[in-house]
Amino acid sequence: MTERGAVYLGVDVGGTNLAAGAVDGEGRLLSRVSVPTPRDGGEDALCREILRVAGLAAEGAGLALKDAARLGLGIPGAVDRAEGLVLHTPNLPLRQVPLARMLERASGLSAALENDANCAAIGEYVAGAARGCRTALVITLGTGVGAGLIVDGGLYTGAGGMGPEVGHMVIQVGGRPCNCGRRGCWERYSSATGLKQTAREAMLACRDSLMWELSGGTPERVSGRTPFRAARAGDAAARGVVEEYLRYLAAGLANMINCYQPEVLCLGGGVSNEGDDLFLTPLRELVEREVFEPGRTHLVKAALGNDAGIIGAAVPFGV
């Protein structure tokens, strides 16, 4: 529960940047700052930089670091909340690191850890597109596909505390190999990474596609925006990429809706910003065809963007 007048600090720990903010008890972001994630120096260097960027966020809200009510972190990997441990992270060299305890010793603040996708869900639930709902699912489309699930006003994490890993449900048996060891996982088709792979495959099959020009003639430089930009310009190959991407994304979203029946399903991540014409409107139509009860779940774009993880990390939730 939040305290009246208290200010909370949240840090979204990414493989590229540490984004920090000061947040009030209503979930309003009072300040925001971002610095590069240190690549050298190990966990001690990371701890120091987290405290430095948190201090900058505190200063932006007009208070000292020591005067914040608590420090919360969103971690891109598995965490043990009770022990304050980072169990493992795919894109940072962290394994069995007692990060919360390290931060508490160095700052005197109470520190807490949560998975970054769960933080995004908490942020949208507290102050974004899922505010006022009892049941909400937030899906983030980034390097992988992450998810956070709010059920009856509480965060659902499963018996082992690591759910829901929806990106690793198989959507194409025997399909693309995934880093998790399985084949055909949803995120291999519906993440930004999967979208880029589909675009590269289409480029190699169609040498006159506009996607070549937009990516500087190099498939490795294709971005998640490339097929959408080319499709808007009338490129048939790019339109095929977008349509295939939306079919896989819609199939997975319909699975999620059929399983959990959330009041609202929020989509976040860079791909979700591609606009209604080529993204949200056709996606809604595809999903509605595949769910058991059309119209029950509202499919919307997440409202807080990259701030959701900061807000969700900062505010106490379920404690």
Structural features:
5-stranded mixed beta sheet; 319 residues; alpha/beta
Protein model, in words:
With 319 residues, the chain is α/β, with parallel strands linked by helices. 37% of the residues lie in helices and 21% in strands. It contains 10 helices and 13 strands. The strands form 3 sheets. The protein has a 5-stranded mixed beta sheet with strand order 3-2-1-4-8. A 5-stranded mixed beta sheet has the order 11-10-9-12-13, with helices on both faces. A 3-stranded antiparallel beta sheet has the order 5-6-7. A hairpin with a 4-residue loop joins strand 2 and strand 3. Helix 3 crosses helix 10, helix 5 runs antiparallel to helix 8 and helix 8 packs across helix 9. The mean pLDDT is 93.
| Averaged pLDDT | 93
Q: What is the CA-based Rg, rounded?
A: 20 Å
H and E string: EEEHEEEEHEHEEEHHHHHEHEH
- What proportion of the residues form beta strands (DSSP E)? 15-25%
Give start-end ranges of low-pLDDT stretches.
none
Per DSSP, the total helix count is 10
Give the total of beta strands: 13
Shape verdict: globular
For the biggest sheet, the summary is:
5 strands, mixed
Measure the end-to-end span. Answer: 6 Å
Oligomeric form: single chain
What would you say about this model in short?
This protein has 319 residues and is α/β, with parallel strands linked by helices. The protein has ten helices and 13 strands. It has helices at 42-60, 99-107, 116-127, 187-190, 192-205, 210-214, 226-232, 236-260, 276-290, 308-314, and strands at residues 7-13, 17-24, 29-36, 71-75, 78-80, 85-88, 95-97, 111-115, 136-141, 145-151, 154-156, 264-268, 298-301.
